[in-house]
Automatic annotation (TrEMBL):
Annotated Flavodoxin-like domain residues: 8-149
Domain of life, per lineage: Eukaryota
PANTHER family: METHIONINE SYNTHASE REDUCTASE, NITRIC OXIDE SYNTHASE-RELATED
Name of the protein in question: Methionine synthase reductase
UniProt-listed Enzyme Commission number(s): 1.16.1.8
Named cofactor requirement(s): FMN; FAD
Species of provenance: Helicostylum pulchrum
Keywords: Amino-acid biosynthesis, FAD, Flavoprotein, FMN, Methionine biosynthesis, NADP, Oxidoreductase, S-adenosyl-L-methionine
Annotated FAD-binding FR-type domain residues: 298-552
PROSITE patterns reported for this sequence: FAD_FR (PS51384), FLAVODOXIN_LIKE (PS50902)
Alphabetized SUPFAM superfamilies for the sequence: Ferredoxin reductase-like, C-terminal NADP-linked domain, Flavoproteins, Riboflavin synthase domain-like
Gene3D superfamilies attached to this UniProt entry: 3.40.50.360, NADPH-cytochrome p450 Reductase, Chain A, domain 3, Nucleotide-binding domain of ferredoxin-NADP reductase (FNR) module, Translation factors
Segments forming a coiled coil: none
Length: 722
């Protein structure tokens, strides 16, 4: 009897959709190759044939601080409790991890899965893939999948009921198309940099193409639409918006030499989504709300915005806003919790893309259904939706484009030179060009306008664009101080790229506009503007804290809080909470002497940083107040741009190392850090390692191990973003 397994099982865990997309693509392609198997999100493990399947393929990303995605937490509970060393004896497994090397716990979920699966008796049949979002996931994912197909026949039996010959032949044809695109002599574009003076005719043509890629493309203005609604509601009405143009891609084609063979092209992903106009157009009753297909883990509240304030001056490097939302008495939260905002894509961008796709404005409000096998979660419920809502809420036009998107666009481009350029961008030879384009974060509009003859069908765009996701913010207030209300602070994302393209975020400029672009602060004290009368509402839901980034239950425990920039936000919530707890305890009069009250709350060290006190000292008034009333016992402020000496929070941690060592090691202080994962968190980590080397007298390796133990035991808590 053959010991080859008959079927495979794919289990995926995904926070923002990448792992889901990759897992479902592997599943669809495996089916095309004649393999049989099933694909489940990890949390559906109870209905997955976990013990019955001989080959298990795991695709998992990371979130938080090396944490597993939300849709795998139940599976992890099950794995942790399962101590049966023979539970997966019959299984061979492979893991593809998705991570980001900006985080120190790079691809930790994949490592943990491997360990656990081995403990449960499974054997690994293929090397673990560790894809890195910082470099581009494709660099690892594509070759990993490519090799998987080579390895799979050694562990998996082909399904003999399917015509293997047929499947192999069509595969060969596909392979030929994708990996052997030969450049015909008349299309050879020579290197532009060093051959400009001796250009053959073919290249002259090519220069014309390059210019056409650089010049802005003339587009028709958007026609006006029939529906208009008031402008102060939270959701976006269908009305004519100012027409925008994209920023054309700057494409270097130096790698395209005579006779070059393009290799390593991404697989043409199998079409999944099928968009059909509904024959009966329903009455539109939900004009001003988030469409039903948007799935959230908690119910959506339309929270009125009651206050807005700009925390920075006009000449500060960033614009920071603070908002207060009325979430009602029934919605519970703790300081440190985060919440999601469901902001639509930028309306100007949406309408410009629809226009570029030649979709008349009369179609925007028509109802459509999206169907297909293995649809991604964000499209699964789009069975009755207005076309424009798919563009506003289903897909993301601004995040890094996938190589597979360029590959698909090439298929829908008629001009041979444009087609070749698209193929080059996603080939192995075009890696540097792809990376340069990716670094510029082009929108779909930028890409489409750079290739005028490209006309992709909407279905295929739905297949290849990433999911549009809620944006998360830390709550910066305490329920003890503001019952039924939350405050939060954020930088309005709006910047120019190295290539001079103007980019903006999705939710933060939307919130800025929604709250009427309040003026920057002009005095040291920011002005809080009451806008409760304007009727502005924001669709949101509370996301309870998954990684214990909350105050310790014992108030005696000392706290070390490290949060420069907007990383201060959750700590303002912590401190407000502490301040209220102290007030409550004092007013109860049970403890008596102020000294005793002091003792029942441990010392609080705050390490906070900004560029320039006069421009971006966020929460200055509140922090001074916390210092004055003893809520903060030690305040360390790092100012990085006020003088020639740049001081960062990590410098102050180094300065205070001896004192901190006492507090952390002898008094069991809890350490919290919030903010940028790259520069700041690494710097702080190094400062803590130095502290341990000097005062705990261990070497660097041992010091790092201690930090890892602190992270695991939740003594060192991190809320970081890349
Ligand atoms: C808030 C956040 C936290 C993250 N934390 C980590 C981490 O600790 N380690 C890591 O390797 N990658 C981390 N990542 C990177 C993701 O794992 C990576 O972007 C991946 O492609 C996401 O895949 P998904 O869309 O399937 O969730 C983080 C990403 C985000 C947005």
């Amino acid at each position: 009897m053959s010991d080859l397994a008959k079927e495979y099982l794919i289990l995926w865990a995904s926070q923002t959709g990448n792992a889901e997309w990759i897992a479902k693509n592997i599943h669809t392609e495996a089916g095309k190759k004649g393999y049989k198997g099933q694909c489940f999100v990890m949390d559906d493990y109870t209905i997955a044939p976990l013990q019955q399947t001989g080959v298990i393929i795991l695709v998992a990303s990371n979130t938080g601080d090396g944490d597993a995605p939300d849709n795998s937490l139940k599976f992890w509970r099950f794995l942790r409790r399962n101590k049966d060393k023979t539970y997966l004896n019959n299984a061979k497994f492979a893991i593809l991890g998705l991570g980001d090397s900006n985080y120190s716990n790079f691809n930790y979920t994949g490592q943990r899965l491997e360990k656990k699966f081995k403990e449960l008796g499974a054997t690994m049949f293929y090397e673990r893939g560790m894809a890195d979002d910082a470099e581009g996931l494709e660099n690892v994912v594509d070759p990993w999948i490519e090799k998987l197909w080579e390895v799979l026949p050694t562990v998996l039996l082909q399904d003999t009921t399917l015509s293997i010959t047929e499947s192999v032949n069509s595969e060969k044809e596909l392979e030929k198309q994708m990996t052997e695109l030969r450049i015909e002599p008349e299309l050879i574009p020579f290197s532009m940099n060093n051959r400009k003076n001796t250009l053959p005719q073919a290249v002259e043509n090519y220069i014309a193409l390059e210019n056409s890629l650089i010049e802005a493309v003339e587009t028709k203005p958007v026609e006006s639409s029939s529906v208009t609604t008031e402008s102060t509601t939270s959701t976006t009405p269908t009305t004519t918006v100012k027409h925008v143009k994209g920023y054309p891609l700057q494409i270097t084609l130096d790698g395209l030499e005579a006779g070059v063979k393009l290799t390593g092209l991404p697989r043409i992903s199998v079409p999944v989504a099928k968009l059909t106009k509904l024959s009966e157009q329903p009455l539109d009753t939900k004009e001003n709300s988030v469409p039903d297909f948007v799935v959230t883990p908690a119910p959506v509240t339309y929270a009125p915005v009651v206050m807005v304030s700009c925390l920075t001056t006009a000449d500060a490097a960033k614009r920071t806003l603070e908002l207060e939302l009325d979430i009602g008495q029934e919605t519970h939260f703790e300081p440190g919790d985060a919440f999601g905002i469901l902001a639509p894509n930028d309306e100007q961008l949406v309408q410009a893309i629809l226009n570029r796709l030649n979709i008349p404005s009369s179609e925007y409000n028509s109802f459509y259904t999206v169907e297909g096998e293995n649809l991604p979660t964000h499209l699964e419920k789009a069975t009755k939706t207005r076309l424009i809502d798919l563009f506003r809420y289903a897909v993301d036009f601004t995040s890094h484009p996938r190589k597979a998107l360029f590959r698909m666009l090439a298929d829908h481009t008629t001009d041979p030179k444009e087609k070749l350029t698209l193929m080059y961008i996603c080939s192995k030879q075009g890696t540097a060009t792809f990376n340069a384009i990716r670094d510029e974060s082009p929108t779909l509009l930028d890409i489409l306008e750079s290739f005028p003859s490209c006309q992709p069908p909407i279905d295929r765009l739905l297949d290849l664009l990433p999911a549009h996701l809620p944006r998360f913010y830390s709550i910066s207030s305490s329920p003890l101080k503001r019952q039924g209300k939350i405050r939060f602070a954020f930088n309005v994302v709006n910047y120019a790229t190295l290539g001079n393209a103007q980019r903006k975020g999705i939710a933060t400029p939307w919130l800025d506009n929604l709250t009427n672009l309040v003026p920057s602060r002009t005095t040291p004290e920011n002005q809080e503007i009451d806008i409760s009368g304007l009727g502005i509402k924001v669709p949101m839901y509370i996301r309870p804290n998954a990684n214990a980034f909350i105050l310790p239950t014992k108030s005696e425990r000392p706290l070390v809080l490290i949060g420069p920039g907007t990383g201060i936000a959750p700590f303002i919530g912590f401190l407000e909470h502490r301040q209220m707890q102290r007030k409550i305890r004092t007013s109860m009069g049970t403890v008596g002497h102020p000294r005793e009250i002091q003792d029942s709350f441990g010392p609080v060290y705050l390490y906070y940083g900004f560029r320039d006190k006069s421009k971006d000292f966020l929460f200055e008034k509140e922090i001074n107040q916390f210092k004055q009333d003893g809520t903060i016992t030690h305040l360390a402020i790092a100012e990085s741009r006020a003088t020639d000496t740049k001081v960062y929070v990590q410098d102050l941690i180094k300065r205070d190392a001896e004192k901190l060592y006492e507090l952390i090691m002898k008094k069991d202080a809890a350490i919290y850090i919030c903010g940028d994962a790259k520069g700041m968190a690494r710097g702080v980590q190094d400062a803590l390692v130095d502290m341990l080397v000097q005062y705990h007298q261990v070497d660097v390796v041992e010091a790092n191990k201690i930090l890892m133990e602190w992270i695991a035991s939740k003594k060192y808590l991190r809320d970081l973003w890349a």
